[in-house]
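debug: dumping io for the single-chain case to check the tokenizer round-trip. Nothing else runs in this session.
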Amino acid sequence: MTEADRPLSGQVAVVTGAARGIGAALADRLARAGAHVALLGLEPELLAETAARLPGEPSCWEADVTDPAALKAAAAGIAERYGRVDLVVANAGLGTGGWFAETPAAEHSRVIEVNLLGSINTARAFLPALRLNRGYLLQIASAAALVPAPLMTAYCASKSGVEAYAHSLRAELAGDGVGVGVAYLSWTDTDMVRTADEDPFLRELRTKLPWPANRTGALDPAADRLMAGILRRAPHVYGQPWVRALQWVPRGLVPTVVNRRSTKLLKARKSV
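debug: decoded output
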């Protein structure tokens, strides 16, 4: 294998939410590109299983992204082990669906805490190391930041928040040589989406979205596109090619279309 096949040789990459889904898939690609990967999450057994499949010198760190002290300790431990941090993928996230009025407040708040505040905590913990090495932070957002949908209030709010936060952060860090990217994914074949589809009403509502937003994309092509964005230190990365087009549609138009298509079904459900 040549150096061209290992463009991240000698670099250190941190991935939160690395036990499964997009996080695990990116950890694999980063390791195969030559990076030493530190996997963070709350599922130590799954983290260890993922790490065991990776080349290089992977490591696992159990940490809750909503706990700044735990993240700070993990960041210090990773820097001590590897001597540097070059890449951070803020991927940890939760999804929940259902009627806003029927969703427990604690469940709603937890999604916001993990997806938005957890991402901010991650950046704070690793920013000193990224500044030292003129690194790159990829914030995993979602097409939900561009297309808010009913029955996903907490998730859409959190992903809109991380999109805005990351865009704001990019300009602040440019003078330090730190790049900040935002990744947008539509429905992707992960545990989170499969769990959502177990709810028959949510699954039916999703089929009413305009094509191709009603389709579930394969995990591997999405992870490949995100990895390509990491290597380019891209400011915007799209897990599915069509999602890029949403950036050029007026922000008020897509939610209007989605809500019009959803309202009839929602009203019928309420009348049952």
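debug: round-trip ok. The mean pLDDT is 88.
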